[in-house]
UniProtKB/TrEMBL annotation, chains A, B:
Gene3D superfamilies given in the database record: 3.40.50.2300, lambda repressor-like DNA-binding domains (1.10.260.40)
Annotated stretches, region: Disordered: 1-21, 336-361
PANTHER family with a match to the protein in the record: HTH-TYPE TRANSCRIPTIONAL REGULATOR GALS, LACI-RELATED TRANSCRIPTIONAL REPRESSOR
Keyword line: DNA-binding, Transcription, Transcription regulation
Gene Ontology MF term list: DNA-binding transcription factor activity; transcription cis-regulatory region binding
Domain HTH lacI-type intervals: 8-62
Protein's name in the database: DNA-binding LacI/PurR family transcriptional regulator
Record carries keyword DNA-binding: yes
UniProt xrefs under Pfam families: LacI, Peripla_BP_3
Amino acid sequence: MPPAQRHPTMADVAERAGVSTSTVSRTLRGLSTVSPEVRARVEKAARELNFAVSRQAASLVTGRTGTVAVLVPTLDSWFMGSALSSLAPLLRAAGLQLNVYEVPDLAERTAFFEHLPARRNADALLVFSFDLTDEETARLDDLGMPVIYVSRQVAGRPSVYVDDVAGALHGTRHLLNLGHRRIAFVQTAGASGFSFSSDERLLGYQQALTEAGVPLDDALVVSTRAGDKRAAAEVLGTLLSLREPPTAVFAEQDELAVALIWNMRRTQIAVPERVSVLGYDDQPLADWFDLSTVAQSPSDMGREAGELALKLIDDSGADHERHVVLPTYVIPRATTAPVARPRDEGERHTGGEGTLGRAPS
Amino acid sequence: MPPAQRHPTMADVAERAGVSTSTVSRTLRGLSTVSPEVRARVEKAARELNFAVSRQAASLVTGRTGTVAVLVPTLDSWFMGSALSSLAPLLRAAGLQLNVYEVPDLAERTAFFEHLPARRNADALLVFSFDLTDEETARLDDLGMPVIYVSRQVAGRPSVYVDDVAGALHGTRHLLNLGHRRIAFVQTAGASGFSFSSDERLLGYQQALTEAGVPLDDALVVSTRAGDKRAAAEVLGTLLSLREPPTAVFAEQDELAVALIWNMRRTQIAVPERVSVLGYDDQPLADWFDLSTVAQSPSDMGREAGELALKLIDDSGADHERHVVLPTYVIPRATTAPVARPRDEGERHTGGEGTLGRAPS
DNA sequence: ATGAAAGCGCTAACAA
DNA sequence: TTGTTAGCGCTTTCAT
């Protein structure tokens, strides 16, 4: 390990190339007002010295940090991994760095909004999935940089999100179209700081039922913790012990749906013959479980949000209220099928139709 | 949206508090040489002005950026999500920012090593999971900051990793102890830029067989693409059509193991009765599939790497060759069981013992 | 097309 | 305990 030798500065490059630092600066930023020969000399010197511009020094004078910050509830989730993975190359291509603020709990959240460490240290902030208070939003408003809300709709601020009402509406319609009338909706309780669009999804579910003339039944709307097999077993028991149990379950997250299916397999409840299960998200887990689901694309969100950020950084006159609404898609796989004939649950009168949802993929 | 009003500077705070900028600086950095009354005045002024120190300006003089950079092949993986998720709070607590360089393909990789954008923009670099060339390692050596290698052992440089030879050794022993003698090993081919310790794991597998007196058979070592169901079906076919097919399969990644199980379920090959399957990683997917596996902890790696980084940043005299080796654990779940009696595959002569691996969890 | 000089917002001697 | 001063390494007028 070489002892931390000082980094070469522009002055070093300038000296070696026999020019002034101004010329070095102009060359390295690609300004056209440099003669080809001088440019060549400078670039050679810079390469030989392994010179890299100090963003610190540059940003001190330009007022730009060359950094985009993201505020995320966690990094350990399919959603964030996918979203950041499409955001990162986009920023890289624009010569921007990516700064991550992970705020997994209330203490960190409070600290973040109190000190706003991103202030002066980024050119834009992308806020993912948080359900902010008005006060928090107001704090971000005077952060002095464009703030883009992702996976979250915030009135009057640039936002990128999917239409969860429509997503849940279509998902529920899919079940209705299969003949289901007793459709349960399973919500997430106490998510790990993550804010799902739980209310919107419930609303879409209710809208679909209403438009189909199916009465809403509060007993069919339950909530549980995500990724908890035991908790899923409990809600499953609750639902299946209703006087009129559901023939289909719509879980507002794939993880929830999979936890239900896991329990059903264990207890010999046939999916989808006895109960259809529909998820929401289309994360990789859904594919492994052949789960029918409502797909959203976090990578599209990351990309759209990144592009919006770049636009807002460049054009301070750009449209600061722009909303980008991304679509959802119902992906039928093997866990949704036509409802079994009522009062005939053991038998399959509908034959081929009954296994339609399990067609070889 | 308020027009990007200029950020207040220390001079503004100083004026408002009626002191010099030096005093403001000292106060805000928590130096003890400030009288309580003055400190109070300064803090009040800073709060009222919503002042935040410009790291750019500070680092220009201190030579420290207050940032730790991570170089990762992708952000969209269980491993990285988990590792960064434990790294982030640690850095936050130390007042450091987290800068992410995602290098998903060769082009980006080349660009990264050519320009080393982290130079001068971080106080330390954590390199995750890359199988670097000597030249690349050499480039990082003169980056002018501590470089810590994570999930990768690099001679003479600080590294944090698990002992994959031992992990695979123990995993294979688990299968041997269950009576298996025909044990296949499935490798990953052409991973998505990610470098697994494939060779080490294979070595551990071979060591275990050798120490048990089981001859190595090249036909039992196959490779396929991860997360590809179709490709998994092919290697499964290859293995099962051997003259002496394996009774157990050790996949070097959980995803691979799950893909095999998925195909076996589809084709009515009983797991673990007919074939035992063992994975490696213990990612969440393993739990969902009740997969027996060899566990490693990326979150421990993230934490250890972070702590090592902090140490190396502070103590430039610290041990720069320190290696932290983390343990692996065999986690038996429901996909490994004692081998069925040879030539008796249809029957279960071993009764209770045969279903040991599926005991209710 | 190039250079000289000023200054971005801080911190770190050094004085007082 | 506090203030004064001199830069840190760049970019940006303004000259030339």
